[in-house]
Amino acid sequence: MRKSFLLLLLTIFLAIVMVACGSDDTPSDSVEDTDIEGTTDGEANDQETEAGDESTEVTIDHELGQTVVEKNPETVVVFDLGVLDTLDALGVEVAGVPVESVPDYLSQYAGDDYENVGTLFEPDFEKIFDMQPDLIIILGVPKKHMRN
Question: Does pTM surpass 0.85?
Fold first, then answer.
């Protein structure tokens, strides 16, 4: 009797786990992307107009507040080599990089096709201003590594 009861409880438990872990094959109507700070497009970055058309801008929340960035920027300057590697893998076109700091595996960015925007520690502000980039991506330093 006791074994039957334990077997019944185990079967019910497994059935509940299987139902809870099952996948829903129906497509979701709203897919939410998470930005760096953990807010989702549906929470803080919702930029859809009343007519249902998507906006051409995205609002990004960060430590200093909010920044509005155009979607699909044409001229991008990148100072973060990890982001440069990611953009390269995604096939995103980059206009300017710190050519002297580019590692060997990203050597295609050391050519004349890309503007040299200085180094990681000494950006060429005049060159960047002349380029009039739509987006500049830099490396953020966590507060715990900053000097007081």
Answer: no
